[in-house]
Amino acid sequence: MTELVEPSEERRAAAAALDVLLAAGYRETRLPPWLDYDRVRDGLDRARVDSCKFVAPDGRVLLLLPDPTLGVLQSLGGTGGQALRVCYWADVFRVVDGRWTRGAQVGAELLGPVGLDVDLEVVDLALAAAAAAGCRQVRLVLNDAGLTEGLCGMLPPAEAARARRALEAGDFVEVREAARSRPEVAEALRYAGPAADVRSRLKTLPLPAAVEARLAHLEQVAAAAARRHPAAGVVIDAGMVREIGYYDGLVFQVIEAGTGRVLAAGGRYDALAQAADPACGGGVGFACDAAAPAAAAPGGGGGGRGGGPWPAAGRRECGPRGGRPPRARRCGWGRGGG
């Protein structure tokens, strides 16, 4: 359900979020209203979004900007081996329920460096942007695309394929059935909660080195985020895969506590950044659908429904049955995943 938000409230929320990014040293860039389809085809396939295409007078196939990250990568043309910090406030166009739909997004991209401090910088900015827009009661949900893939890879091939399909469908009962040969893996994929509890579900299994590295990095991000933002509930959700799109590392959502409304979402997209510029070490960023924090903020609509023009966040119970908070299942406008 789409929630109506006063344009003035949406502009206020977007401007407040953008001010946070500018104050952090991110340079605002004006994104093109359309992209060359041939230049962004690979990224578009990874993003898995329905774009609005049209034929230009010169015969080229263009598409209205479907994803800000693709626009940033095309417009910058390369990093020159340097760290680039850019932010934007742009209209994004998607096909939603068969109709062309426009929505404003504010976000940031950090291109070049990789590592814990870099990921934390972007997570901090996403939380700060949501707070500046008026949303202070939030939860931070973290995952790593490589961790989820690595956990699935610990299953026999047929079970792994079945588990991946179940995760994509958001069917966590089917995940348990799919991974019957290794119930510890199923429980890790089904669980969303404190970081330490994910590892406890895997303690009887030897972890491949790649899975151990992904999990350790995610635990470090979660611990640091909890220290820096004690008011935000921080959880790891190894089954959060829908809307990941082109993300291949850290992926996160900032959601409104109690409603599951997704206020911001982002993650790491190293392969996409390197495909656009081989000299680039990687990329990480996030975006806010401007209408979502506007609706969540006091006086902005509220009501627990999904704000913005994209589909509302779905929800399911986190972790084992019994008393755990709801999990946001879709960011709706995700940037490809973000």
Structure, briefly:
By secondary structure, the protein is α+β, with helices and mostly antiparallel strands.
Throw out a few tags for this protein.
nine-stranded mixed sheet; single chain; three-stranded antiparallel sheet; alpha+beta; 38% helix; BirA Bifunctional Protein, domain 2; 338 residues
Structure description:
The chain has 338 residues and is α+β, with helices and mostly antiparallel strands. It has a single domain, classed as BirA Bifunctional Protein, domain 2. 38% of the residues lie in helices and 23% in strands. The chain is built from twelve helices and 14 strands. Strands 1-5-6-12-11-10-7-9-8 form a nine-stranded mixed β-sheet, sandwiched between helices. Helix 1 packs antiparallel against helix 4 (116-132), helix 4 (116-132) packs across helix 10 (209-228) and helix 5 runs antiparallel to helix 10. Residues 301-338 have low confidence and may be disordered.
Which fold name fills CATH's third level, the topology?
Answer: BirA Bifunctional Protein, domain 2
Percentage of residues assigned to helices? 25-40%
Distance from N terminus to C terminus (CA atoms, Å) equals: 21 Å
The strand line-up of the biggest sheet is: 1-5-6-12-11-10-7-9-8
- What structural category arises from helix and sheet content? alpha+beta
Number of E strands = 14
